[in-house]
Amino acid sequence: MTPSTSFRKPIYLDYAATTPVAPEVAAKMAECLTLEGNFANPASRSHLFGWQAEEVVESARAQVANLIGADTREIVWTSGATEANNLALKGAAEIYRTQHKTGGHIITSAIEHKAVLDPVVWLEEQGFAVTRLPPNPQGIIEVDVLAGALREDTFLVSLMQVNNELGCINDIKTFAALCKSRGILIHCDAAQSAGKIAVNVKELGVDLLSLSAHKFYGPKGVGALYVRRAGDVKIAAQIHGGGHERNMRSGTLATHQCVGMGEAAELAQRSLITDGERIAGLRDLLWEGIADLPDIKRNGSSTNAVSGILNVAFAADASHGCDGEALLLSLRDLAVSSGSACNSASMSPSYVLKAIGLSDAQAQASLRFSVGRYTTCEEIEFAIEHIRSVVAKLKKA
Ligand SMILES: *Cc1c(COP(=O)(O)O)cnc(C)c1O
C-alpha cells in the first residue's frame, strides 16, 4: 500500500455531530481577533474600540434573529445549545418555584438530546415532577400523547424540533398551540432544525428556543436562546456576573464567536432551499445505493425528516446480520456515528433507537450517516461501494 492511500482521510459523513466552519464565516471571525481588528470588549462604553465591537455583535444578533423570525431583543447569546437548554429549563423552573413555593410538573420526551435530558434529571432531583413522553415508531411525538400527559401543575414543556439521531421533525406548532391554551411555557431545542428547515418562532408560537452555531457551519462554543418578549416570558439567570444580555446571561461577549454565528445564520438562510434540496438528493442516493442489502432497514420517519440524516439498521436481529461494533470498525474510510454511545469501554445501545422499538442488537448494528453542504456526489458513490464491500465481508465471516 502506498503512503498516499494509507493516509487518506476518511469521508466526513457526520454533519449532524458538527459542521466545519464555512470559509466565509471563518474570514469574518478572523477580523475580530487581533489589534488591527475588532478585538475590543463589546461592553466597553468609553471608547471607539468598544463601540465598534458592540456594533458588529449587534448586527450578528440581528442576523441570528432574522434566521428564526425573532426580534433582536429576544436573542440571548450563550456558549451553545447545551447552555441555552440549561438556561431555558432551569431558568423557567426557578421562576416557577419562586412564584409557587413548590416544584411543578415538566414534560419532555424520552429521545431529547442529553442537553435537555440531563438538566431535567437535575430538576427532578430538586423536587420537580417529570414526564418523559415516548415517541411513536417513526421517532415522532404525537400531540395526543402530549395532551394526555398535561397536568394541573404542568408549567413547562420541552420538545425538540428535529431529532439529532433520526432527523425526524416534530409538529412544534401544534404542541405550542396546545400549551398556550393551557398557559404552559413551551421550549424547543432547535439545534438540528435551524438553518436546515424554515424555523419561525412567531409561526411556531414557542416561548423559548435553543440554537447552536456549529450545527449550521458556524463555530463551536456559541449559541443562542430565543426568549419571547410578548406574554411576559421570564427566566432566571443561571450565570451571574455583570448583568450582560439583559440580566439573563453574564459574561463578556466573544465578538468573533457572535460574528461567526451571525454570518453562518445569514448564509444558512440564503442557501436553505438549495442546500436542502441538494443534500436530500445525496441522502437519497446513499440510501438507494444500499437499500437492497440483506436485513437493512431505515430507522425513523423517511417522509417527515430533515434532508441530511440517514439512520440505518444493518441487521434484523443478533443471530444473523452483522455486529455493529465490527461494522463501525470496518468502515474505516467513513466518518459516521454509531447507533451506540461509546461509554468508556462498553458500547451501550442508543436510547433513542431503543425508544422507537429497536432491540439492543438492532440498535448496535445501526449507523447514522449525515450529509452536509460540502458533501459531493463522488463521496456518496465511494461510501456506497465501501459499505457494500464491508457488509459483504462481515456477513461471510
Ligand atoms: C448539538 C446539539 C445540542 C448541543 O449543542 P452544543 O452547541 O454543542 O452545546 C443540543 N441539542 C441538539 C438536538 C443537538 O443536536
From TrEMBL:
**Enzyme class (EC, first level):** transferase
Q: Where is the Aminotransferase class V domain?
A: 11-381
The EC number on file is 2.8.1.7
- Look up keyword Disulfide bond and say if it applies: no
Q: Which keywords label this protein?
A: Iron, Iron-sulfur, Metal-binding, Pyridoxal phosphate, Transferase
Cofactor(s) named in the record: pyridoxal 5'-phosphate
Looking up InterPro entries in the UniProt record yields:
Aminotrans_V_dom, Aminotrans_V_PyrdxlP_BS, Cysteine_dSase, PyrdxlP-dep_Trfase, PyrdxlP-dep_Trfase_major, PyrdxlP-dep_Trfase_small
Return the Pfam families for the record: Aminotran_5
Question: What reaction does this enzyme carry out catalytically?
Answer: (sulfur carrier)-H + L-cysteine = (sulfur carrier)-SH + L-alanine
Q: Which family does it belong to?
A: Belongs to the class-V pyridoxal-phosphate-dependent aminotransferase family. NifS/IscS subfamily.
State what protein this is by name: cysteine desulfurase
